[in-house]
Write a structure and sequence with these properties.
With 163 residues, the protein is mostly beta strands. The chain has a single domain, classed as Immunoglobulin-like (Sandwich), CATH 2.60.40.10. A five-stranded mixed β-sheet has the order 3-5-12-11-8, with no helix packed on it. Strands 4-7-9 form a three-stranded antiparallel β-sheet, with no helix packed on it.
């Protein structure tokens, strides 16, 4: 099974093949799955997440989404429902030459992407405009990797937690 993750700045989104879940810290809104986890500044391990794929490339093979940060067990820790927290997505793909990201669940994110084509390994925060809406219980995203060997899409969810 392919790894699945995704990322948030101050919060994150991740797939299981790249890195372990971000350690919880006290000023970051992203925490591990435990409802009692505390959060703190974004650790260096998070900054390095999805910096490079861990799967070897194979010419002509279907794209693989190797990493999205943070872990599916992670969640965004909001202090109130009216918050809009900064969000940063990170990914690493193999056998792809472009990536698209869209809100919601889609077979192909390209037609509804909130971005243009993105690089196979990258970070996106919309110039600081991408936000997590704490009023939502969860937000779904689709990432689609495309290359010579076809396309691969993964849907991931960012959960909201209130203390």
């Amino acid at each position: 099974m392919r790894a699945r993750h995704a990322l948030v700045v101050f919060a994150l989104l991740a797939l299981t093949g790249c890195a372990a879940p971000a350690p919880a810290t006290s000023s970051s809104p992203i925490a591990e799955s435990s409802p009692t986890a505390e959060s703190s500044p974004i650790p260096d391990a998070v900054a390095a997440s999805c910096a490079a794929p861990t799967t070897e490339s194979t010419a002509g093979a279907a794209p693989v989404i190797d990493c999205i940060y943070p872990d599916p067990e992670a969640y965004v820790l909001c202090t109130k429902r009216t918050q809009r927290l900064p969000l940063e997505l990170r990914w690493a793909t193999v056998n792809a030459d472009r990536v698209f990201i869209a809100y919601g669940s889609h077979d192909d994110a390209e037609p509804v992407a909130f971005t243009g084509a993105l690089p196979p390994v990258g970070v996106y925060d919309g110039g600081g405009e991408l936000r997590h809406e704490c009023a939502e219980v969860a937000t779904s995203y689709t990432i689609t990797a495309k290359g010579e060997g076809g396309m691969t899409s993964e849907v991931f969810h960012l959960q909201t937690r209130l203390p």
